[in-house]
Amino acid sequence: MRSLTFFPDDDSAIWLARKDATLAVAILELCGHSATNVLEIGVFRGAWSLTVAVNAPTATVFGIDPYPGGEFLQQARMQALRSFAERDMSDRLCLLPTWDDFLGAAGRPESFHLVHVDGRHDENHATVDLENADTVLAPDGVMIVDDFRHVGYPGVASATYRFLERRDYRVLVVTECKAYLCRTALHPAWSRRLKRALGNQSVVPCFSTWSQAEGQSVDNPALPSVLGAEVLLCIEPSGPLQAPLTRTATLRRIARDWLPPVAVRALWRARERWRNRRLTP
């Protein structure tokens, strides 16, 4: 498995955890295709899309984000486009405003190996995004649901569980906030691939430490499941896949994990205003 060669160290990645970037890149490599197609719903500043594109050089990224009104969101859109342009990768990002524009786009791939659902976080919009994502996900692809475990967005979890009941998917892996879904038939194969690729210290059965505390064998813990499928927990990867954690990244992680989203956005707007004043002669 190649090392994670790039991870953004600016405010674009405020809600992106290094482990989720590592996991996304690992999944693309494990797909085994010479070229991969990636779709992100809810691009914002483009940190996730850029990180995947830089670390997976054969990936082409499509993004759906309407950036509805306001200077703040328009600046976010320009930052996403600029981040690709600065690396001569503009031809690897296709950014569209709506699902209708995406589905009707000429020349778009028929299927995608990795789909990141990170759009509006209410139950209705999450449901639409999941259903649409299902129509374009490759048979062996993986779908990522952002903020699945976030206490501030219960509608995302509700929409995801309803989706699992309606469609033939199972939860493969969870991190602090994201859930990784794959089709039921490929769940055992994907689980084995990730365990081999990332190592048992990086991907472990959920709550296996609780099983140890209860005196059960580490080799045979009481595994939790969703709809009969084992759920894995991705802890912080170790070894060559992990890039060094900078002071800025540490502060960003603390803000992401402990502050409400509204407070985080307010802090970063204040930071941007302060930086702009410093740059103004």
UniProtKB/TrEMBL annotation:
Q: Which InterPro entries match?
A: SAM-dependent_MTases_sf
Could you identify this protein by its name?
A: Unannotated protein
